[in-house]
Specification:
This protein is α/β, with parallel strands linked by helices. It is built from 9 helices and 7 strands. Helices cover 36% and strands 10% of the residues. The protein is globular, with a radius of gyration of 20 Å.
Amino acid sequence: MQEVMLPTKGFTDINNLYIPEEDGEVALCNLGSIVVSNIENDEDYEKTAYILAKITDNTIERGVYPFPQVEYTAKKRRSIGIGMTDVAHLMAKNGLEFDTQEGRTFIHQLAERHSYMLHKASVRIAKELGKCEWWNKTKYYDGWLPVDTYAKAVDMYHDAELQYDWESLRKDIRQYGVRFSVLEAMMPVESSSLLTNTCNGVYPIRNKEIYKSSKKGAVYFRAPNMDTLNYQNAFNIDSQDLVKYYAIIQKFTGQGISADFYTKLDGVTKTSVMDVAKRVLLASKLGMKSWYYENFKTGEVIEESEEDACESCKL
């Protein structure tokens, strides 16, 4: 059960945290997210990806670090994770469902645009400020792109063709390098979704109206335009279909996805070991790197809890 996968290395001595360039490495998350329902065209998406990547780069540069060695490796790698949020709202606005071929084709186009525009931003900032010093430790140094190594079996579940010029992008990366060692991450966006009045991350909604309980107390939340849009409820989507959906996003995501699953426990519906095993095998076949929470519904009224993830991995 993971969120992101970044290189780490153990320390031979705890005191080496205070010595830059010593052995060991702590992985550091630098996260942001794009509200996809607010962007209508490629030009705006490219601009948004660039601005958010630049803000995150400045955060890395100006951040206050607990140990010198953490600062050293953070600035050498410049790992960021820019995700998507309010996907359920965007799907509902377009009359799409998560478990249909049409819906999966749409999410393929969205995930590709997200990754491509972030890669363009990484090259652009590399031109402006220089490539990350440890880019030779990344796959980009060897000319890699996400479209090279994904699990090809996932293409059975959508009808989309690649819509962007990845080969030209590859040439630009070889010439200018990249500013960031990694770009995409799909994290929980539970707390900040209240501030932006958006649906959480890439997840389907669990209810149109909920109370989110957090350290700050219970907060009422309603899905945007819930009276006029037809949202698909997460508990009505088969886990196998959610695997297909997440795997399409994973095709264009350099890190793990905080992939949630949803099960009704109503005394009638049951989850067997065989069902879970089938889900695990399909996820492996389609190239998913990670799962996250398993959500259970035991009644009609749901009070959501703010996800108990590590504070640095919540947006």
